[in-house]
């Protein structure tokens, strides 16, 4: 998922935190994986590509569901791919392999994959049109691409609340949706437009919502400050005493979402899919 803001070494540094929180991430995004697979319409696939697989999902789950298929996961983070490959070995998934590469320049032949999936990675591409056209190149005619991206920021209170408090405390604008980032593709219809610029056809878009649970206020803070790229970036130059003020204000603000000592937030994503002519 190479891009100007987040090069490979950035994601390498995030890899251990993502592995620590992978159970939360996978539970969080399991409904998204299910929706992506429904959009792919897979029937006896031979080769499937997972672009921006990170530490292995959803590629590992797809490899387990389709043991006769060859599943390849790509990413720009060698450390994350090492983790993904290690998990494949632990699970005995000989049909899963990894390749370190940029999404806009992949080392695969034309018309190579039956289907391509990208879960919450496309919004980090340095050039979305170029990335989608490269994916279209490696797809077989009639093959399908399905991607997911976060929905409107205000419909993802689990993170928007934190970003709003950081902005209020620091008195500076933190987020520009026109730059690569978690909510770069949040507006309805934007991803569908990009699909069309990449010459994908029969484009469909589906809005998804769900509930994410955190076991405590502290867990929520640790998650968003270690896993959520936009919060990590927003805090990186803020002195620790100011970060502590932010943490305290966030803890107070999330109190209304506590039920039996656990936090519950609604999340919003969008799945977009299309077919290669």
UniProtKB/TrEMBL annotation:
GO terms assigned for molecular function: S-adenosylmethionine-dependent methyltransferase activity
Keywords, sorted A to Z: Methyltransferase, Transferase
Classification via CDD domains: AdoMet_MTases (cd02440)
GO BP terms, alphabetized: methylation
Pfam families: Methyltransf_11
Entry-linked InterPro entries: Methyltransf_11 (IPR013216), SAM-dependent_MTases_sf (IPR029063)
Keyword Transferase attributed: yes
Gene3D superfamilies: Vaccinia Virus protein VP39
Residue intervals of the Methyltransferase type domain: 49-146
Protein name, UniProt field: Methyltransferase domain-containing protein
Source organism: Chitinophaga oryzae
Lineage start: Bacteria, Pseudomonadati, Bacteroidota, Chitinophagia, Chitinophagales
